[in-house]
Amino acid sequence: MFVCPKTRTRLEAWYSNASDTLYPHLDEIPVLVPEPRAFLRRHGPWHPSEGVAGQRQEILPICEPDAVSPFLSPSELGVDGPFGAALLDLGTLTPDSWCASVAVEHAPQGPACDVGCGLGNMARIMAREGRSVIAFDRSPNAVLLARDILSGRISEALMPTHAGGAKSVKLPPVAVQTPLQLAIADALSPPLPKDALAWVHLGMLIDSLQEEDLIQVLLESVQLLAPGGVLSMTTAYDSDGPLIENEPSRADDLREVFEELGLRLIQERDVIPRVLRHHERRFTVQLVHAMVFTRVK
Q1: How many CA atoms lie within 13 A of 173 on its CB side?
Q2: Is the pTM above the cut of 0.85?
Q3: How many distinct helices (H) and strands (E) make up the chain?
Q4: CA distance 138 to 220
Q5: pLDDT digit string (tens) for 173-208?
Q6: What class is the 69-295 domain?
Q7: Are 254 and 235 in contact (CB under 8 A)?
Q8: Most CB within 10 Å of its CB: which of 53, 79, 179, 239?
Q9: Cα–Cα distance between 290 and 294 in angstroms, integer?
């Protein structure tokens, strides 16, 4: 299903005739960004034959603090003490699980895409719902680790124990069996044909975007949907912990933008907790707003 991210034309053996570009692979994962070799020189493994002497490499981070917590609900984190009891009270609801429960009910048959997939938790959920799944992220390290986790290549991952230490922790059973295609790609130039997907998910993606990129990413994501397709998304409040009175949410603005782009709101839910484990004694509880839309034109 992948196409040239610059021209949206078909690839032949990863070559785009329209842009005269051969898209490379990094450890068997296609690198489908508009200028792939320049991108790899800056963000991927550095090779003297392709890099520039003295060029500083900028590693794109994996957003999740560890590779285990994203696949667990608050009550499944296994934390001891009073804070652990508080997490048990939060139950098993997560922003991803809520979005999936609504999207599955309304999305037509067809492939699903996790845009900015991180370690691939929503891709895992999509696959377990029987979908053919495409997942991509701009971080090479995130995509490679997601591939290893979701394919079952690794059964354990490092989890921070304190500021300078880590331990190996067994991963929950997250390997998927349905078709899963992964790519290193940018939401600003998604390497997918327009009008091709039944379900697109934007999980916390807009929170990391510059304002000048936000509308472009939303427009590109909507254009991936076939008519009747479903877009789910999550966005966090600016402050963590209890809500400040009259604290603004992006939800009002997003409803207006998506309506202008031809989407209709199906359902939304406010203040879903998202627990981030930084190490064994440090956690952040984000308050998340989740929305699900359908494309009507």
Answers
A1: 2
A2: yes
A3: 7, 13
A4: 15
A5: 999 988 899 999 999 999 999 999 999 999 999 998
A6: alpha beta
A7: yes
A8: 79
A9: 14
